[in-house]
Amino acid sequence: MRLFGTGNSTDAMRRSSRQSAGSTVTWRPLWRHTRRCRQRSTRVSLVSALKPRRSSSDAPRHTRPQPSSPPAIPARIIRDAGRSPTHRPTAHCSTTRLTMRTLSLALTVSAAALWAPFDSQLAAQQRPLSFMDVQELKRAGSWTPSPDGAWMLYTVTTPDWEKAESQTDIHLVSLSEGVASDRRLTYTEDHDETSPAWAPDGSFFVFSSNRDGNDSQLYMMRHDGGEARKITDADEGVSGFDFSPDGRWLVYRSGEGGREQLYRLPADGLVGAAAEVITHGDAGVEQWDFTADGARIYFARPDSFDEDEVKRVEKGFTVDVRNAVTPLSSLWSVKVATAEERRETDDPAYSINSFTLSDDGRWIGITGGSPKRYERNITAQRLYADLYLMEIATGEIERLTNNYEVGEGGLSFSPDGRWIAFSAPDNMERYTMTDNRVYIREVADRGGAFRKLGTDFDQSSSVGFWSDDSGTIYFNAGVTVTTQLHALDVATGAVRQLTEERAALSVSRDDDTGTILIGYSDPMTPPTVFAVASVDDVPNRSAWTQLVDVNPHVRDIALGQEVEINWRSSDGRTVGGVLVYPVGYEEGTRYPLIVAIHGGPASADILRFNGGYSAQVYAGAGYAVLKPNYRGSRNYGNAHRTDIVGDYFTMGYEDIITGVDHLIDEGIVDGDRMGALGWSAGGHWSNWILTQTDRFKAISSGAGTMNWISMYAQSDVQRNRQFYVGDGFLYEDFDTYFDQSPLKYIKNAKTPTMIHVVEGDPRVPSPQSVELHMALKKLGVPTELFMYPGRSHGIPDPRNRLVKAVSEMAWMDYYVRGMGEKFEWRQVLETLEAGEGPAVVSEEGGR
Predict the structure, then answer these.
(1) How much is the pLDDT for 393?
(2) Cα(721)–Cα(709) distance, integer angstroms
């Protein structure tokens, strides 16, 4: 094994730029909002400005590099009008233009990346992206087209990170007129209005709100104006609702946790009507869905309810029993009009996890979980399951798959009821993390074999949505650093790529109205949504109508240019990823580098807005950011994805290091000023880098493993560890697992390392981080461990996400660039000061 190696550099790439005069400012840590003003030598901060302080008497044990002369920053970065479809202001300020030399394996960039002529007045208004900007981005969701296809309801969520809360309201937009027609329908300061649903005739809509208390109730409102009217007063609030397809009923779910039942209201007399309960089991209703005619509801319900479990928690016995015994769930149905219930399944061989109904009302597809305690309950995700098919008329059930270890998904019926399809890995005999294929057969062909579709397509295929004639399945799939819409021919199994966007694209079809919606984001465009008349119009950008623009202020923020980059790894294989240039990049200037390593590992970094570890914040602070799609990543073919099997780290590490060397060879990166960071699998690779090289000046490890042996038992999933590490059973092969563990090589560690983890993380448990922290302390390597409260794989509290981001950049600035100070709590506490106006700090630090 090669330690502290440099890897092999390969094909050259160059960047040239013309820097506009008069736009030079000083690099600063961008922990908060900042505004650069050339007319006066001050910085305006929305919370307080941070001025790096350097003192020879306060130098750390490890030598830090001295900062070089600050590079010039243009006041506005590239706005690629040819690639970003969102509305842009007509006036553009200047910047530079990146020109490319065409070479093999050189950077792939948007062809229209031109910068407008320099405008000093507009330039002075620009500022880089800050972590606070990221915290305060609004989110749109709950897309709900009207039955006539003329309108769309949606929600806008505004975060309040100081309270670790958010607030949601409902908006309306015309599908033909787009953003210009947007209208906010609800106005609540401290409450949420969510889950809008149109009445079948489109005359009004119903939504959920907690405006009158802590519990959510249902309200109705006309889309053309008027006050909302309350229609439920459920004691335990409402936890889900829907209109029957025939328009007769509004059905909702309500009740104590674990005991929720279904209630009905007449759709033509909602206000003042008394709700009637239509289900009556001891245990609560889980998933539920109407039949196509609206006469019946199918639902899943546990076979029993444990009264003692409720009582012991109420009495304060809050011990957590791992993988506790829980009842199986069965499928039931109820006539909505008469409340007559009927049990549909009663088989101890499986538990109902989920189900889907065919449009013709003849079939039910069932995902049935293993009845074995330590398979069914080992995670909250119900990973161990098989597929079943029920004929409604006879009640006969056919088992479609018999491999609990293999994960099938996307069970779906074609619109004409002829086909049943699902997605699963290439190998259906055992668990793997290979690319998925679509499996299909005629529904009525009982016992028949499934055909595998898309076998010549070297990416994952899935069941997205069907064409009206049931001859085509549309799905979104990653292609290197983008996601594109594809079409899968049911008859031939051939796959066609339909779009060529340099962006993250997600195309969907509304089941009720057939409306085609396009989710879109590129490096300059926060997530937004477009509508088109038909799926045939998706490849035609001119046919798109933008519906949502909830973060228009981003257009006034300077962003670093993001490009696709390719290089050769040490074994000659081509590897790709995303390079984010620092704001104001100048050819000939070498920049500090952050290597931001994605998780998964079967994930990928793509060209989307601020994707992954707030890369644009680092770009605004003067860093180049490399986001490598190392071996193990998706979007580059099945071989690329599985090259790490049996030797988890070696080739991924080589891919990362050769990518770094490539940027150094091209004169973009200063090899003496580099840091690396990652979360989850990115944390695994950060820990491996720590033990293999001392080339990086700082590392931030987030939720990373140290010891595959202990990790196997501590984590809530084991099958993927076994697949990646060597496919051997841990308890019969300890050596294979330990040979691939960073802990085995920890004595090589020399790089100052910050560690972040959620205390109750079930996926990569915190003892892994504690083990790393202790080892580094004993080895005399500078280290800090930040343990966040919670029981999730990601940091749940937005305030703590800010702490992570701020402390991480402070760590990088301190050790990579030799500037600033290590994290101090005042850097975050000052953002909570109430009642103060923006702090004004001069470039010399006066206040």
Answers:
(1) 95
(2) 10
Q: Please give the Cα distance from 493 to 450 (Å, whole number).
A: 12
Other Cβ atoms less than 10 A from the Cβ of 787: the count is 16
**Do 128 and 621 meet the contact criterion of CB atoms below 8 Å apart?**
yes
Helices within 582-624 (DSSP H only) = 615-620
Interstrand relation of 557-558 and 127-128 (parallel, antiparallel or unpaired): parallel
DSSP-assigned letters across all residues of 168-199: EEEEEEETTTEEEEEEE----SSS-EEEEEE-
Instruction: Name the β-bridge partners of 558.
Output: 128
The answer to whether the CB of 477 falls within 8 A of the CB of 486 is yes
Give dist(CA 620, CA 557) in Å, integer. 10
Model confidence over 631-667: pLDDT tens digits?
A: 999 999 999 999 999 999 999 999 999 999 999 999 9
Q: Answer for the pair 758, 703: CB distance below 8 angstroms, yes or no.
A: yes
Single out the residue of 755, 815, 819, 802 nearest to residue 614, CA to CA.
802
Q: CB count, 10 Å around CB of 82?
A: 12
Tell whether 296 is covered by a domain. Answer: no
Check residue 718 and give its pLDDT: 86
pLDDT at site 820: 84
What secondary structure letter does DSSP report for 72? P
Contact 652, 621 (CB under 8 A): no
Query: Which has the closest alpha carbon to 682: 747, 620, 757, 609?
Result: 757
C-alpha span between 237 and 51 (Å, rounded): 50
CA dihedral 318, 321, 322, 327 (to 10 degrees): -110
Q: Is residue 378 part of a domain?
A: no
Which tens digit of pLDDT belongs to each residue from 338-360?
A: 999 999 999 999 999 999 999 99
The phi and psi torsions of 591 (rounded to 5 degrees) equal -115, 150
Please answer whether residues 203 and 577 qualify as being in contact, where contact means their C-beta atoms are separated by less than 8 angstroms: no
Q: Please tell me the distance from the alpha carbon of residue 739 to that of residue 646, in angstroms, as a whole number.
A: 11
Provide the CATH number for the domain around residue 580.
3.40.50.1820
Q: Is the peptide bond before 601 cis (omega within 30 degrees of 0)?
A: yes
Q: How far apart are CA 376 and CA 369, in angstroms?
A: 6
Query: pTM to 2 decimals?
Result: 0.84
Instruction: Check if the beta carbon of residue 462 is closer than 8 Å to that of residue 507.
Output: no
Amino acid residing at 319: V
Residue 493 domain flag: no
Instruction: Return the exposure string of 810-847: e unless at least 16 CB atoms fall within 10 Å of the residue's CB, then b.
Output: bbbbbbbbbbbbbbeeebbebbeeeeeeebebebeeee
% pLDDT > 90, the chain: 70
Q: Crossing angle for the helix pair 650-665 and 681-692, nearest 10 degrees? A: 70
Q: How many domains does the chain have?
A: 1
Kindly state whether residue 622 falls inside one of the protein's structural domains.
yes
User: Collapsing DSSP states into helix, strand and coil, what is residue 139?
Assistant: strand
- Residue 736 in 3-state DSSP? helix
In angstroms, the CA 746 to CA 776 distance is 8
For 49, residues 6+ apart whose C-beta sits below 8 A from its C-beta are 28, 32, 34, 43, 839, 840, 841, 847
Give the pLDDT confidence of 397-422 residue by residue, as tens digits: 999 999 888 888 999 999 999 999 99
Structural domain range at position 579 = 558-818
